[in-house]
Amino acid sequence: MLAACGLASADELFSQIPAEARLQRPLALADGISEYEIVDYFKSLAAQNANGYASFLGAGVYNHYRPVVVDTVVSRGEFLTSYTPYQSEISQGTLMTIFEFQTMVCQLTGMDVANASMYDGSTAIPEAAMMAERITGRHKALVARSAHPEYREVLATYARNQGMQIEEFGFDRATGQIDFADLESRLDKETACVIIQSPNFFGIVEDAKKAAAMAHAAGALLVFTFTEAASLGILEPPRDADIVAGELQSFAISPSYGGPFAGIMAAKEKYVRQLPGRLVGESKDSEGNRAFCLTLATREQHIRREKATSNICTNQALIALMATVYMELYGKRGLRELAEQNLAKAHYLGSKVKPLFSGPYFNEFAAVPAKPVEEINAQLLEKKIIGGLPLAKFYPELGNAVLLCATEMTKRADMDALAEVMA
């Protein structure tokens, strides 16, 4: 190889790499070991993960049961190795699953149209804000401070070079819900949209109807977002919103150290041409049979750059397929039963550990323990329990508050143990 490249040595091959960046010693690897020793090595590393631990973490990533049939379907080669279905004549299977995904998202959210394959919930939010900016011609977005703080960080990153102004409005320290007086004081003729999350970051259910009425009275749009999709099994769909953006991680998508996930975006039909990404539509082939194809794909690959809405949306269809199979398995009644189980578990925990806020909550709530959160979490780890999320990082004004989550996977014995340590 060196001779073919006209080089005298391996050192000459790597001469372009700065000396301080080159490893001057052999790799710290043992001499050749057998296959079973390698397997044992990785098993020992895996044992260091929290396998078999109970968890009370939520905050946008939730521990729900994943039916085995989900992986059976998505592991099929036709889905696992496919990419963007540009050629509809050879991509009918993938296109059909995306079409079904869009349909179910519309049913779940109460919206008229939905696109496919947003990266995740955090990127869906700024895309929704930019969509509202295009629709209204205004350049300010008001976002609830009770929305996921990392989602708000992503929104700020997008807005920085978009010329969009971002303002936050507060939450009521008693209920944990939106401070409507603060929202009203910030609404003006430059407001393109109001962004709320429900259940919000504290797990509290918001009054979306009131938020929509206030936004519309000011000529702005309401962007409704969610991180816990299971809540839509029991809460009324956000039909009063103009755009819905959220995260379907709860629907059979493993936490996986934070991704990849499946973001969604849906809207009223009159805004369909401003939806970023792509849509799959139903049509007929030359013989009159039902067929599917990409339509209204306003991404830069499909349309002139100045006409494109966004360059978001690579092929997240495999992740979206997991959520599609999950929704198909559970159905309307199953999703409602799932939501009821989550509600019951969280409220049992809430009866043991007093919530900080008085507002209605779904499967997550904030609490203030008697001892420092870090000390409590360390004690819980000794019992193979992962405690809640300390809120001081994002909300220093809440002091020693912790965010706790209980899903259908949470056992009563673990909830009792957590309550005992917190008391």
Brief summary of the model shown:
This protein has 423 residues and is an alpha/beta fold. The chain has 13 helices and 14 strands. It has a 7-stranded mixed β-sheet, sandwiched between helices. It has a 3-stranded antiparallel β-sheet with strand order 11-14-13, with no helix packed on it. Strands 1-12 form a two-stranded parallel ribbon.
Overview of the structural elements:
The chain has 423 residues and is of the alpha/beta class. The chain folds into 2 domains: 54-66 and 331-422, Aspartate Aminotransferase, domain 1; 68-326, Type I PLP-dependent aspartate aminotransferase-like (Major domain) (Aspartate Aminotransferase, domain 2), CATH 3.40.640.10. The chain has helices at residues 2-5, 10-13, 35-46, 68-74, 77-80, 92-109, 121-136, 149-160, 180-186, 208-217, 317-352, 373-382, 412-422, and strands at residues 54-55, 113-114, 140-144, 165-169, 191-197, 221-226, 243-247, 263-267, 279-284, 290-295, 364-367, 385-386, 389-390, 402-405. The strands form 4 sheets. Strands 2-8-7-6-5-3-4 form a 7-stranded mixed β-sheet, with helices on both faces. A 3-stranded antiparallel β-sheet has the order 11-14-13, with no helix packed on it. Strand 5 (191-197), helix 10 (208-217) and strand 6 (221-226) form a beta-alpha-beta unit.
